[in-house]
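Notes continue from the previous slide.

Worked example: a multi-chain complex. Inputs as given:
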Amino acid sequence: MENLKVLLVDDEEEFVTTLAERLELRGIQARSVIDGEIALQMIETDPPRVVILDVMMPGLGGLEVLKRIKAQHPQIPVILLTGRGSTDEGIEGMQLGAFDYLMKPINIEELIKKMQEAIKSHP
Amino acid sequence: MNSKNLWTRLTKGLLHDSDDDNANRYLILRRNIFILMILITIIPLIIMAVIYQHEYQASLKKEIVNPLKTLANKTKHSFELFLEERLSVIRFIASSYSFEELSDQKTLNRIFKALMDEYCCLVDLGLINKKGIQLSYIGPYEFLGKNYSKQSWFQEVVVKGNYISDVFMGYRQFPHVAIAVLRRTEEGRYLILRATIDTSKFDNLIASMGLDQESDAFLINREGILQTPSRFYGKILDQYPVPFPRGNYGSIVVEEVDPQNRKMLVAYAPFTRSDYIMVLAKQRSALLKPWYTLRSEMLFTFAISVVTIILVVFKLTDTVVKRVKDADEKRELAYREIQHTHKLSSIGRLAAGVAHEINNPMAIINEKAGLMKDLVSYDDQFRKKEKFLGLTDSILQSVERCKEITHRLLGFARRMEVQLVRLDLNELIQETLGFLDKEALYRNIELRLQLTDNLPYIFSDRGQLQQVFLNILSNAFAAVEDEGQIVITSWEEDSDTVGVSIQDNGSGMSGETLKNIFDPFFTTKQKGGTGLGLAITYGIVKKMGGDIKVTSKQGEGTIFTVYLPEKAKIVPGE
């Protein structure tokens, strides 16, 4: 897990920066961003190993961002975060190529486990 | 106005009875329909019966009265003919013979003999002069030389030209009638020829009427003295005891009550040329016998009809009211179900919104508290580390609890993806019970399984059905005391439905609780109940095209019955 580059995308800044800090504490290089467009640019310039992506975002929605990532970088696994209990979004996301989805509030240990699984399936 | 009020009240009662008490309402409805139907069926029947009776009575009377009148008239004519015949013979003799011839005893005797041969009933014959002196006489009595000038009949014959007497008893106590005619001869002399007739012929005439036992026919004079013997009212020359119409009239029929209290129909036919009145009396009861027979038959038919109508109306009313009641109940049920579904869907949407909005700040709290915990635990120098870790853990646990609630809320609201698999319901129940085994063991709860072998497989969603049974079973566990009993039964309801019932002997529920049991957020648990379990259960079962019913008695226990189609018919959720 050392030096694992992760990009966190969520419009809720308080959430995303805190989560990034916690991951950093666990030795994961986590960068956070609150806008889909910027996230896509960052992926272009410095592709991360895993993307954690919120489904519900203003502007470019999570599923749209997911589609673009998968179109450009199919090798980057994407784990979705959803605020809604609805599994529909999660399932839709997985049909679009997301590795898995987690419901907010998340358990950080569970997130890390999911990331490890994702990396394993995307060598 | 009164009848209008009654009508309004009846129809109001019938159509818009707003009485809250349902049983009372149906009683009133039943009563009103019954009364209305009885009225509209029996009243026309009564009217018809009365009209019919009246008409029939009238026509019957006509039928009885007319023959009576005719017979009385006919007999009267016979009498008149008989008397007229005698009068005309006497008149003929008076005009054929001269005064001298008639005053001669020998000639008169010859004439009398010839008359006796031709005409019956002559008793005597005599000539009387203008002064009223009997000049000649042939007959059984000694009337020669008798002076009649002072007698009323003599005056009458002098004035009118002829005379018919009332009946009188002769010296030999036989009833007789005297007739006399007056003639003026060419020489200007007056002669009066007088004859007496034996009235035995009258009896023959009456006998020829062919009367039955209940009838009587006789003659009276204008004073009401019987001129012939009467069967009912005495012998000849007695007073006729019944008041009768006086004066001049044609033949009439009157109803009378005689001194023996018999109701009689009596025909009176007065003679035109004498003072007699032909009387024909018949007992009314005899005449109306066919009417009485018919009336009793009619009464019987009427009674039978009324009884039949009442029975039919009663049965009909019963059926109608039952139908109305059933329809009302069904409507009420359907209404409640719609209301419930509506409530579920709107609450579902609300819940989803709330849960989503809460989830985001909750996620922030979660991360912040998580970071605090991380920072504290990574810092070995941190004072009061234990205290801080305790605090952050408590926050995280609370977040976890909130998360559970919001996820359940969302789970309730979300459109569930159904995965149909072929499954054995018995197996699924046993599997579900596996989750609760420990609690059963710990609380010493008896779980009794009455599962039907060879229950048909059903196609349904395993996970969701598990949730259904888990929810119901959890409630049962909550309801029973330690060492309580829960009975689970499965059976094949019909060719495409299976049923499962879960019965506990726990505390049971009040009617009010029972009414709201499937409503979201309705809970009776003091702690930790979200009020969503049974609402979700209800939603799932309905979505599967099944049904769920619950019966409960306070203090005795509750039975949940779930009906599931063998092939789930997915009903789109809200």
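Summary box: Helices of chain A lie at 13-25, 36-45, 62-72, 87-95, 108-121. Chain A touches chain B at residues 12, 14-15, 18-19, 21-22, 25-26, 56, 83-88, 91, 103-106, 108 (CB under 8 Å).
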